[in-house]
Structure formats: structure tokens, C-alpha cells
Amino acid sequence: MNEIMYKNAELFVGNTAVREIAQSHRTPFWVYSKAEILANIAVWSQEVNKKNLVCFALKANDNKNIVNLMGGEGLGADVVSAGELFLALKAGIAPDKIVFAGVGKQDFEIEYALRQKIRAFNVESEQELQVIQDIAERMNVPAPIHIRVNPDIDAKSHPYITTGMAKNKFGIETGRAIDLFKYAKSLSNISLKGIHVHIGSQLLDMSPFEDCSKALRELYFTLKNLGIEIDTIDLGGGLGVDYRQVIDWPPDETGESFQAPSVEDYTSAILKHLIDLPLQFVFEPGRSMIANTAILVVSVIYTKKTSEKKFIIVNGGMNDLIRPSLYQAYHRILPLKNPVRETRETVDVVGPICETTDFLAKDRLLPKVERGELLAIFSSGAYGYSLSSNYNGRGRLAEILVDGSKYKVIRRAETYEDFLKLYE
Ligand SMILES: Cc1ncc(COP(=O)(O)O)c(C=O)c1O
């Protein structure tokens, strides 16, 4: 299914021409397809049978209405702060479907999560385990936990989004983790439920997941032999998406074709050595659930030539979509109208921010565009709005959800008055 597509050389989301939205809403703004989100939820729910649980990683997209849509379809949430926990609860996610990861959980966050009776903390260090025990003891409540292990597996992704290697700050090296499992078992208020792992994001090669599956099986039996029974393995997220072939037409400028792994490829790999074990599995997809369901719509403000480059200066910048600046990430960019043109040129698409790193694409072969044209930045539903900022005095953008031929604002744009509210 592809709800974001060109019809007669005009970009549509569902039955809505994106240019029509731009007639009543000032660019830049995000446009999501409800049908695409529901389709992704359905794929995940189908692959992960009823016994297991999908907890959407809110860090990828924390729009309350989108999270609410997911909750309505039975999904839980993976949160990494009290703020995300608050949002997940407000979006209607049941606390017993919420897992809480992150290397730096503060005491007040732990207390809050214990009060809300979340499903489990994904514990990332020895000290954190002790702090959770102490707080739970003081509150006289049980603290359900998974211990996050770091299996030292190279996810072969961008180094900034690789999390499961010994040099990364996440989790506890598998060897050292055994002692922590034993210790957790001995603590009065800790209820040891399982193992957690997350080796990285945007994985397109499934072999690291297979390696991880194997390591988890070994760990499961090591624990079992020590008399430590668990009932859950929380497998994290990490499935990559295809940022290039995101629409069927026109093909991307490289003309290369690449078959991105499916949710089924991912679950087969990660469950390869685990499927026969009497366990419940939790999955924490972020990107693969939401990235390809949205576009960022920007306007061309100016075009500009130097002796070396041509720049397309647009009104969306790194404060709106930081992925290109942060990870040299690729997003397709095309005009909303007539994406195939006789004249093409190699350009840098840059934003208005006063930083040289403010770019959306570098040395990209694009159809020649003019001042005033509207462009779509594709695959920007994940780590888009949630990573955006007010840098350079810019308000965060509106998010618009298209449902067939209807659309509505599901988070309004920030106004300058909103800036002032923080001083009240
Ligand atoms: C613990 C954890 N779970 C899930 C995710 C979501 O990963 P992805 O968006 O790659 O699916 C992340 C992302 O960093 C994470 O750190």
C-alpha cells in the first residue's frame, strides 16, 4: 500500500493533494497519512502474535494523537523519560503496556513510574538497579524490571545510532550482567521479569539481529541453569527503512533498486534462536512504524549560486529535521508538482538556520526548482518533529493528519506567544 504518491505528477497523501493543504496552512508543516500508520500497525500486529507485545518507541514520534491511534490498536509504549511516560499515559496507553529504558533515569522519574505501575523498567546499570530497589523499598511497592544487556554486536548502522557495542553507554556487557541478574533476584522489591536488548537503529542487514538472537538464547539458558527464571525478552527496535525507494515513482536519482527488509524478515531474524522458548516477546519499533508515513513540506525561499555550488534555500531547516545534519541521513526531496523535469541540477538544499551544518541534502541531483515552489521531504515521520527545536527563534511546526480526502491539524504550530508563556 502506498498512500503517499504522485497522481498526474501531483503529490497526494490519500485523496488529498498536498498543495491544497498548503493553500490554507503556512509552510513548513508535516503531513502524515493515517492509512499508512494503520497499515504499519497492522503489519506489526500480524507479525507479532497475540501473546507478544509491540511497544511503540515514543522517541521516534511523540504526537499524542498518533500515539493514541496506536494505543487504540492495542500497542503499548517504550519511553525513555518521565516526560514520555506522561505523554504515553495522556495518549491513553495502559501503564501495564509501558516499558521504561534509558541510561539516566532520575529518582523522581523512577518514583513517578513506580506510582503509575508501569510494566517494567529496562535497567541499564548496577547503580540504577540499586536506586530502583531503594526507591521501591521506601515506597513499599514491587519494581518489575528487565536487565538491558549489551551483547557487543556491531549493528553496521551509522556509528551515532549503534547502541549494542561494548564502547556504547547502553546496557550491561553480557558477561557482567550475570552477576547483576543474580543480585536482582536477591533484592526484596525487585521483580525480575526478563532481558532487554537494543543493538541500534536503521539496521538494513538482518545478520546482527540473528547474532543477537543467538546470544540471547545462550544467556537465557545460562540464567536458567543458575535457577533464574524469566518470562520476557524485550527485543528493542532497530529495523531500518528504505529512505530511497519510498515512493514508486519517480525512481530516486541513483536509479538503484534495493529491497529493504520487511517486518517479517526482522522478526524471523531476531526470533531465530528464541521462538521455541516459553517466553513473551516485547518489540519496540520506532522508525519502521512511522518514518515512511509522513512528509515535511517546505517552500523554496531563494535559489543562490556561488562559484562552487548552487543552493536551494528552503524555509525548513535543521531545527525542524535534524537527521541530515546529525547523521548525514538521506531524505528524498521532490517538488509537489511535476517531479520529473527536463532540466536537472546538482544542488545543496539548505535551511535558513545560521549554521553551515543546516542542510537537508548535499550535492543532490534534483529537478530545477524556482523560488516559491513547494517541496516534499519524504520519510520524515520518525525522529522528525520529536528531534526538532526552537533554535534561531523558530517555532515547532504544525503536524497534519490526512485521512482519505479529509485532513486535520493534530498538533498546531508553535507561535511566538508560546515562547512568552515560558516566562509567565
Ligand atoms: C531502547 C530503544 N528501543 C527502541 C528504539 C527504537 O528504535 P528504532 O526507531 O530504530 O526502531 C530505540 C531507539 O534508539 C531505543 O533506544
- Helical amount among residues, as a percent range? 25-40%
Number of domains: 2
Report the end-to-end length measured between terminal Cα atoms.
47 Å
- The total of beta strands comes to 21
Unreliable stretches covering 5 or more consecutive residues: none
**Unique bound compounds:** pyridoxal-5'-phosphate
Structural class of the helices, strands and pairings? Answer: alpha/beta
Mean pLDDT value: 95
CATH top level class name of the largest domain: Alpha Beta
CA-based shape: globular
The CATH architecture of the largest domain comes to: Alpha-Beta Barrel
Largest sheet composition: 9 strands, mixed
Fourth-tier CATH superfamily name of the largest domain: Alanine racemase
The CATH topology of the largest domain turns out to be TIM Barrel
How many helices? The count is 12
Provide the β-strand percentage band.
25-35%
Spatial extent as radius of gyration: 23 Å
What does this structure look like?
- The protein is α/β, with parallel strands linked by helices and 424 residues long.
- The protein has 2 domains: 4-30 and 292-421, Beta Barrel (Lyase, Ornithine Decarboxylase, Chain A, domain 1); 102-283, Alanine racemase (TIM Barrel, Alpha-Beta Barrel), CATH 3.20.20.10.
- It is built from 12 helices and 21 strands.
- The chain has helices at residues 18-24, 34-47, 64-72, 82-90, 107-116, 126-139, 174-186, 207-225, 263-271, 287-290, 323-327, 416-421, and strands spanning 4-7, 10-13, 16-17, 29-33, 53-57, 76-79, 98-100, 120-123, 143-150, 172-173, 190-196, 232-234, 280-283, 294-305, 310-314, 333-335, 344-350, 359-367, 374-377, 398-403, 406-411.
- Strands 4, 14, 15, 16, 17, 18, 19, 20 and 21 form a 9-stranded mixed β-sheet that branches.
- Strand 8, helix 6 (126-139) and strand 9 (143-150) form a beta-alpha-beta unit.
- The structure holds pyridoxal-5'-phosphate (PLP).
- Pyridoxal-5'-phosphate binds at residues 57, 59-60, 78, 101, 163, 198, 201, 236-239, 284-288.
